[in-house]
Specification:
This protein is mainly α and 316 residues long. Helix content is 76%, strand content 0%.
């Protein structure tokens, strides 16, 4: 509990720094969001009224203090473009991103663990070389290219899957599955390729440990040695990378969501940048920062669960 409280205190400091950096960046970007939103229907009186209503007529420091004080209570402001509360927009987009993240990380784990373990056990063999080459290819593939290739193959050519869009799983699970599989594969291939390399390295390191060699020398079945002595010890560094990948996906894979018109946080951030929607952009980045901090805390807590030798808080 003491460690958790310490990490929460650190998270507050990090979030404060995030708000400062994001506030400065979005206000340094050229372009007046009110003027852009009005388009050709510019009226000086309406323009000034909107600036006063949004607080853009006040000094930057006063704007920042007002934003932080409201954000603490959950009020992230109102979107310049839609006029809706930012919190409402973020909550509405979160299920789409969560569903994409779950599918993507499941695909990544199902691919990376078997391939990484097989590659490590058969180190130096032809199988190992093939797995390493495939994982390197997966890391190198651009998301947008892979996404468009899947659309071309499974939608345009074969007609098996819809090319884009999103259906909530609560409305139609079958339609949701049809629409999530291609963006899920696009996300999972890259994440799985990264995880495969880490699983291989971690298993290789564990195989060289003394207790594993002792188990082998006693004549224990190879499968038993792998399941009891290798995989569990190899999980600790892999958990870190898995947590990072989950946080990255939840934070919004902008390119993937744009290609598949997937209404998640990434597409929301993209639209906010285009429209100079300061409140929406600040709220989305703040939420993404919270997601990263929560996932990292969960990962640290899993360390002690997977390996009891690890002591949280730096105690010996």
């Amino acid at each position: 509990m003491r460690y958790v409280l310490h990490r929460l205190a650190q998270s507050v400091v990090v979030l404060f720094g995030v708000t400062v950096v994001v506030f400065l960046i979005v206000h340094l970007v050229p372009g007046d969001p009110i003027r852009i939103g009005m388009g050709t229907r510019f009226d000086p009186e309406i323009y000034e009224a909107l600036r006063r209503a949004s607080g853009l007529d006040r000094p930057p420091l006063e704007q920042y203090v007002s934003y932080v004080s409201k954000a603490v209570s959950g009020d992230l402001g109102v979107s310049f473009r839609s006029g809706q509360p930012v919190t409402h927009l973020l909550v509405a987009r979160l299920p789409a991103t969560v569903s994409l993240a779950v599918v993507g990380i499941l695909i990544a784990l199902l691919v990376s663990f078997p391939l990484g373990i097989i590659s490590a056990v058969r180190n130096g063999s032809a199988v190992d070389s093939i797995v390493r080459a495939v994982s390197q290819l997966g890391v190198s593939l651009p998301n947008f290219w892979l996404g468009m290739l899947l659309i071309l193959l499974f939608s345009s050519t074969l007609g098996w899957l819809p090319p884009s869009g999103y259906t909530p799983i609560t409305e139609d699970p079958v339609e949701w599955a049809k629409r999530v599989i291609m963006p899920g594969i696009t996300v999972g291939v890259v994440a799985g390729s990264i995880l495969t390399r880490y699983v291989r390295s971690s298993v290789l390191e564990t195989l060289s440990m003394d207790h594993v060699r002792t188990a082998d020398s006693k004549g224990l079945p190879r499968r038993l040695v792998l399941s009891r002595h290798v995989v569990r010890n190899a999980l600790v560094p892999v958990i870190t990378v898995t947590g990072t990948q989950i946080a990255a996906i939840l934070g919004g894979v902008i390119v993937v969501e744009v290609v598949f018109a997937w209404p998640g946080l990434g597409l929301l951030v993209y639209d906010a940048v285009r429209a100079r929607d300061y409140p929406l952009l600040q709220g989305a980045v703040l939420l993404i920062a919270v997601i990263f901090l929560v996932v990292n805390l969960i990962v640290d807590l899993l360390y002690a669960k997977v390996d009891p030798r690890i002591q949280l808080g730096g105690d010996p």
